[in-house]
Amino acid sequence: MGSTKRIKFSYFWTSIFIVVFLISSYALFSQPSERSLINLPDKAMHFFLFLTLSFLINKSNDYLKNSLIFIISYAVLSEIIQWYLPYREGDFIDLFFNLLGILVIFWKKIFFFSGA
Known about the structure:
Shape: globular
Number of helices: 4
Strand content: under 5%
Structural class: mainly alpha
Helix content: 55-70%
């Protein structure tokens, strides 16, 4: 019998990812209040949001290609949606910081193709 490599999937990390994904979607697409509870510059918030989402999706499964396509698509789509919302502004610099947050988590797997 040949042994096959089983791809790991974690319900724990996936659950956390879904919760953070939903909260972040609300934060990205809802009408902003005049006063924010979090006192971080906008670009830092984009970076940390996508850093966190990338970390969680990376921990939730071993489907590197699918996870990367999903999180990059979400980063791009979120800026496109914000571009069309009357109370938000889509921004290429925000997209850059979204992608930078993703790259920080996935850089080793992308550039070195390691299995770790």
